[in-house]
Amino acid sequence: MRFAVRGVWAIFALYLTISAAFAQENPSFVAWREAFRVEALAAGISAATFDSAFDGVNVSERVLQADASQPEFTRTIWSYLDGAVSARRIRLGQQKLAENADMLDAVEEQYGVDRHIVVAIWGMESDFGQVRGDISIIQALATLAYDGRRAAWGREQLIAALRILEEGNMTSEQMRGSWAGAMGHTQFIPTSYLQYAVDFDGDNRRDLIGSHTDALASAANYLARNGWSNGQSWGQEVVLPSDFAYALSGRHNVQSLSQWSSLGVHLAGGSPLPATDEMASIIAPAGSQGPAFLIHNNFSVIMRYNNSTSYAMAIGHLADRLRGGPAFVGAWPRDARPLNLSQRREVQNLLSIHGYSPGPADGIMGARTRAAVRSFQRRAGVTEDGYVSIALLEQLRNH
Ligand code: CA
Predict the structure, then answer these.
(1) Cα-to-centroid distance, 121 and ligand 1 (Å)
(2) How far is the CA of 212 from the centre of ligand 1 (A)?
């Protein structure tokens, strides 16, 4: 009898707990979660892993806000590089190289990727492990899968994150990172984690959050499996002749070093390019008013890690500086005002009105927009560098 009374009270207490939990939960999120649970279990995730991972998970306003925000100003490349390759970061990176020398020997030996590049990625992605993100990855990805602009992407990443938990690499409490689902010292998203993360410290867990050894080896593995050429540089700063045809610049216009040399291109220090048939491109990330760089295939491999020219420049340059290399010689056009969001949209709208195809007027100056800018510049008879500036906006307005 006393047992029965206690049992009733226990059930009643449980009922109160559950109803309180459900009262705070968004009912359509609960319905979504139950449907997603079926999908996850069909994909091989165990009920125990799913239920424990989703314990207490709800829609995150912080993640929704971050996903919806659109920058008023995009950073100029010089301001981005100033932050990415600061004196403090170079000093800290050199310290990390010294502290981890034996491990980096082993990583280089195994994957054939230059340690300075690997440590540069560590610095860029998490400031050498200091900023790994504190948002629950399951909560972040569940929010994006439930209510983001990228629901399909979010579902795929969420299944991958559950698989990482299922493998026993870490607990869901330990699985924390950025609002966009990137984790650990090298900020891998879950699908990259599953595909490229390695256990390099030998504890049988692939742990990019708790083990910087695993994380650095995994970054090297990522680059190696995406075509990194051991012994090849990412690129070098060059000086272009005054009559250089900027139509030849751009990552996809590849020529041999001998051909570039015959066009009058030389290294920033004044030396000629090596007269070889190695293929390379020339980029001018701030247009004809800024410095130019010869880039090799490894530059594109870095962009497989993060699809941004500025990012690849920062990794390459930080690696060179960690090795003791010099700062860039050429001056950036630091006086130029960056375009705000409505000006960037106006560029895209005007390109469309003039018959070019810049893609949607989203304010993002991506590959399509830059290609449309080049077409416009070619027809307008101005320097065809594909660079979006206030001067370009005025040319478009007056066209
Ligand atoms: Ca490990």
Answers:
(1) 19
(2) 9
Catalytic residues: 125
207 Cα: distance to centroid of ligand 1 (angstroms): 5
Q: Which of 64, 6, 57, 60 is nearest to 33 (CA)?
A: 57
Gap between the Cα atoms of 8 and 253, Å rounded:
76
The tens digit of pLDDT for each residue in 30-85 reads 999 999 999 999 999 999 999 999 999 999 999 999 998 877 778 899 999 999 99
Summarize pLDDT for 314-346 with one digit per residue, the tens.
999 999 999 999 999 999 999 988 899 999 999
Q: What angle do CA 249, 250, 256 make, to 5 degrees?
A: 70
Question: What is the CATH number that goes with domain 235-322?
Answer: 1.10.530.10
- Rounded Cα distance between 32 and 49, Å, is 18
> In terms of Cα–Cα distance, which of 324, 339, 310, 335 is closest to 81?
310
Cα distances from 301 to residues 124, 219, 228, 229, 372, in angstroms, run 16, 12, 6, 9, 25
The domain locations on the chain are 235-322, 341-398
User: What is the pTM for the complete model shown?
Assistant: 0.90
Cα–Cα distance, 370 to 389 (Å, whole number): 11
Q: How far is the CA of 175 from the centre of ligand 1 (A)?
A: 15
